[in-house]
Automatic annotation (TrEMBL):
It comes from Rotaria magnacalcarata. Homodimer. Interacts with lysosomal protein GLMP (via lumenal domain); the interaction starts while both proteins are still in the endoplasmic reticulum and is required for stabilization of MFSD1 in lysosomes but has no direct effect on its targeting to lysosomes or transporter activity. Keywords: Lysosome, Membrane, Transmembrane, Transmembrane helix, Transport. Residues 454-484 are annotated as: Disordered. Belongs to the major facilitator superfamily. This is Lysosomal dipeptide transporter MFSD1.
Amino acid sequence: MEDAHVNDDNERIILVGRHETTSYHGLLDPRGPYLKWIAVFFMCFLSFGSYYCYDNPAGLEDVMKDDLKISSSTFTSFYSWYSWPNVVLAAVGGILIDKWLGVARGATLFCGFILVGQIIFGIGGYCRLIWLMNAGRFIFGIGGESLSSAQNAYAVSWFFGKQLNFVFGLQLSFARVGSLVNMNTIHRIYDSLDKDVTGPHRIGATLLIAVSTCLISLVCALILWSLDIRRRKVIQEDNPPDPSDEFHIRDIRHFSASLYSVFIICVFYYVAIFPFIAAAQLLFESKYDLSPAWSNACNSLVYFMSAILSPLLGYAVDKTGRNLYWLMGSITTTIIAHALLAFLFVHPVVPLVLMGISYSILAASLWPMVAFLVPKKMLGTAYGFMQSIQNLGLAVMNIFTGLILDSYGYFMLEIFFIICLEIALLASAFLYVYNSVKNGMLNDSPAVRRAKQELLDGKGPDSSNNAAGASSSPDEDEQKAINT
């Protein structure tokens, strides 16, 4: 019987080898070293349209308020209407990815929502129908955050264990290229339109031109779908599916305190970034007497720094590990940047460069942590919940941002951002202590992290939560093995 079993295994290997030589070769060979980097190219541009169009209002703040005759609170509501649906739907999107759609179908569907939402937003602006613009941002938001969850799940599924922080940084870099290009082109598109096109018609035409970037994202999603089909065929040939790897919604109850701490950090950190950028143009014009063009250029510095530094810092985090040290350092630096804007008259370039560096560090160190805190079968769900909780915070805080601006001005808004960052810093300190008590992987060096992961892979799928702080700490035998 054993000889028969060996022969069966040999026959399967021969058949797989034949399939490889007849079906896959060259750059598109899933077992080769090149296909994953081709996929990275399209992963990076997957969210280009989403990020470009997300900050269309920020790049048009001055003319949008004048042409549409709206207040600061109505203007910031464009961001709230983006965020509100994702309080629930980003988590739902993550569950759909893990349970039914898969990453490829999900990413394509969500790109479709982005495209339709931006078209409606543009038509609403053209007709000066604020309710229709809000509806467009709502639909756009359904796709935007769920697409980010799909993008993160793509990165982990292709790169888990190697170059993951670098790939996250690279994705963020190209996403921020979308935001950066928006900040430096959208107002120029508005200015370049025929002078006979004025008021709401001019705003609407500008927003509809931006729809072209959403088409780029949709094309990337379709290409990635094709590449992922090729990769998954090889995975199924080499590693037949294990029924225990199937995702069940009830598995959500195993989310750990570490994961919820990551969620809290995500919310309170990004509150001090995105709402700030959305409202900062007029701050630079009023406090520093900058022109609208220079205000937009300064406002884009955070994204510009992120586009340059995110891959480099992601590579540094890959090489050094110690994600929690990087995380706490980035939050502290962001607090300093907002304090400079609140209390001093230092040129805004200085605090914005600091903010761009710290923002890049946080993105490269925070988001990959989720991969160490949940099994792979739950990655879409975990990232979906992270996006949902983040958007709950952004939806509420964008409302507060508009109210604080209208009632108290920019100084009190900066104080509000500093308080939010201090909460994020406290949550990261708790995560550091909790991770140490649970002997988690989050602040290990790469060598120690690999040793723990090899040990856990030998034990089975349920042990991954223990090492990541999701359940209980490893027993004494495990600890001795890790130490040696």
